Amino acid sequence: MGRMRENPRYNVISMRISDEEREMLQTIMETTSKSVSEIMREAMEMFKAQITEPETLKKAA
Fold first, then answer.
1. For the whole prediction, is pTM greater than 0.85?
2. Boundaries of every domain in the chain
């Protein structure tokens, strides 16, 4: 039986990318020693911060 994970991930998302995008992703993976999944999760967090940051600034004003 497999080990129990604290935050299991059941959802799989696939996407099509160009050869150039694949090369860029491969370079990022080699440079950071991270998996595609880790890179995409970080990218989503960065995008989320970017789109929510203006709302935070408006609330402070």
1. no
2. 19-60
